Amino acid sequence: MKKRKIILGIGTGRCGSKSLAALLNKQPLIECGIEKYKHDWYSLNWRRHLREAIMDRSAKIKGDVAFFHLPLVIKMKYDKPNDIDLKTILLVRNKDEFVESVCKRFKDRGEPLSEKRNSYYQFAKEKGMDYRPTFDYTVPKYFAYTSLKDMAARFWEDYNLAVKQHNLDYFELKTQELNSTEKIREALAYIGIPDKEQYVEKIRITY
Fold it and tell me: Quick one: 40 and 114 in the same domain?
């Protein structure tokens, strides 16, 4: 059976997702989105959603980068469709840098949290920023925390713990390694891109 390859980039967010998607899109054999597949991976129809996402007459390898793909990667660890070859890239940013970036992104000034602010995406909604229900749905809710800083730290810990607990098959890229030609070549080789088909250059890392 011929398998259709799919690339999923995962990570906590604020870790270089846009840069990874841009880098993958520069590869002649890859077409990669950023937060494009917004299906509910918790639903019973996740297999159909996945096939719809990658169904295309193009010969290119399909991919998408988003923090909310972690549940799908975990599902496929235990129940992967036989006709799909999954390649996962895990982006990892230093915990303190991630927390600082979250607080800066959502313009946190130390406001106390409440039941209506039980995920950091609620801050985006309140401040009139880009708010997407898909994001808020997939971010864990923490009712016991009183600061955005503590909440973001807990989210970082839980996300990376889930990756380790399920012993997922992935290629790890630290955020700063997005500018390492050696590591990028290793990542592309993991995906299955031949050396002569690889396009590698230093990129500007964005969060």
Answer: no
pLDDT at 135: 61
Q: If we measure between CA atoms, which residue out of 66, 149, 134, 161 comes closest to residue 102?
A: 149
Same domain for 103 and 89: no
Does a structural domain hold residue 207?
no
pLDDT in tens, 54-87: 766 576 898 999 888 888 899 889 988 888 899 9
Q: pLDDT grade, residue 88 (50/70/90)?
A: very high
Nearest to 36 by CA among 130, 123, 134: 134
Cβ atoms of residues 127 and 106 within 8 Å: yes
Residue 149 lies in a domain: yes
Q: Cα(21)–Cα(105) distance, rounded to whole angstroms?
A: 20
Cα→Cα distances 182→26, 94, 105, 174, 206, Å:
16, 20, 31, 13, 20
68 domain residue, yes or no: yes
pTM, full prediction: 0.86
Cβ atoms 87, 7 nearer than 8 A: yes
| 61-65 and 84-92 strand pairing | unpaired
